[in-house]
Amino acid sequence: FGKVPQLVKADGTATTSHKEQAEELLAKFFPPLPDTIEDEGPRQQRAPVTMPDLTLEEVERQLWATKSWKAPGEDGLPAIVWKQVWPSVKHDVLAIFQASLEEGVIPDQWRHARIIPLKKPGKDDYTIAKAWRPISLLATLGKVLESVVAERISHAVETYGLLPTNHFGARKQRSAEQALL
Predict the structure, then answer these.
(1) Of 82, 48, 42, nearest to 62 (Cα)?
(2) Which residues pair with 135 in a beta bridge?
(3) For position 31, what pLDDT does the model report?
(4) What is the pLDDT of residues 14-46, one digit of tens each?
(5) Are 178 and 166 in contact (CB under 8 A)?
(6) Alpha carbon distance 107, 97 (integer Å)
(7) Which of 9, 23, 24, 92 is most buried by a 10 A CB count?
């Protein structure tokens, strides 16, 4: 069956096809949602934060920071391709990114992931689905747009004090040691 061996299913039988392998992995990677999810309740509303127009420099900074040969998504175009054709396509890509941010919509083809199972290191038995982990291969331009948005959100959070001062997780120049002090 390729790189993934026959897997042992929950009932103790072995998978006999690629389809059964995929179903077994999907069941482990994406367990069912709970029947009910509690409402968080009302949240304090803040004034909206205005974001400046997207610039070519922001997009280029994120594109050049992308690893050139990182695995691409369904389009098959790694970052090196976008870097090589950039002088010819940069204004078109910027226009797509700007439209995406203005409309609040990511192009569908950038939202499709190719999910690849990888072995978790140090496991004794790779015939059980939980010995594998999924990675999602996404389109390079979608990843670049996500990086631009993440950088903008991080900047806004720090500039406008959108998180409490005692929130340390996933913030630049913050550490677990600082949280303990």
Answers:
(1) 82
(2) 116
(3) 87
(4) 999 999 999 999 999 988 888 998 888 888 888
(5) no
(6) 10
(7) 24
